[in-house]
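Work package 3, deliverable 3.1, input record:
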Amino acid sequence: MTVLVTGAGGQIGRAALRVLGDRGVGLGRADLDVTDAAAVMAAVAAHRPAVILHCAAWTDVDGAESDPAGAIRANVAANRHVARAAFEHGARLVTLSTDFVFDGAKGAPYVESDPTGPLSVYGETKLQGEEAALEEHPDGTWVVRTAWVYDETPGNFPGLIRRLAAERDVLRVVTDQIGSPTYAGHLAPVLVDLPERVPPGVRHVAGSGAATRREWAEAVLAAAGRGVHVEGATSDEFPTPARRPAYSALASEHPDTPVLPDWRSGVEACMAGFTP
Ligand SMILES: NC(=O)c1ccc[n+]([C@@H]2O[C@H](COP(=O)([O-])OP(=O)(O)OC[C@H]3O[C@@H](n4cnc5c(N)ncnc54)[C@H](OP(=O)(O)O)[C@@H]3O)[C@@H](O)[C@H]2O)c1
């Protein structure tokens, strides 16, 4: 059974391909631009995958605010192209979405049926991408909302914290954003198996539990053996172009949804393999 992975150069794509081994065919941006409908159809026709794991997306949350058209192409139109190609060629589709489809006002873990209310262009385009995929391929699409994803590479939040800790004695990290940090190495095995395990539709799969960004930073530094002090701060001190939900931890209301390990064990597993 072949699993075609788009966005193969990204965090989740790489982790999925490690899990899949010989079963996986990875297409990075240079191999397949997912905004090109004809190219997507041709790639799916050529590889005839049983499953498409669609990891390619516009993930620059702040950058989407100044280029909404680009984010729409990559997150909405591309989802439609991939879902249409999956439908045409009888493939099941697993596509990624985000906790940023919620407004953060609930103050308790969000489940699949909670009302959405994105605060940012990124969140809005991811939500529209969910709808596009489900519309094109309703019986064969699994939308996985996940959150705060990281891996061993330096270009993510744990990497930033480690880099800053090498330069400073004290870090200031916000306490008014709460979410579910998710280690790509824990998420990937669930993604590749999901169509075998649960019916199609929207599922929440993220590191179990909830953390403030400060708690996440402290866990990273503890796992890295760095004794740097982390002070609490508020988001007002670090203005960003995109608004982020204050509370966006995820949980599933479906008992058959696979549950990931606690977010702290994700940090420990990741930091054990961190590449400086
Ligand atoms: N990271 C998170 O915290 C997070 C949280 C919730 C949900 N998600 C979702 O999970 C999925 C994967 O995220 P990730 O963390 O693996 O992101 P990532 O590391 O940024 O990977 C995304 C990949 O998509 C590629 N890409 C962007 N536009 C493309 C296009 N038009 N055609 C082909 N490839 C394109 C990117 O290539 P370039 O590097 O060349 O741009 C990158 O390799 C996305 O759907 C994202 O929205 C992520």
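The chain has nine helices and twelve strands.
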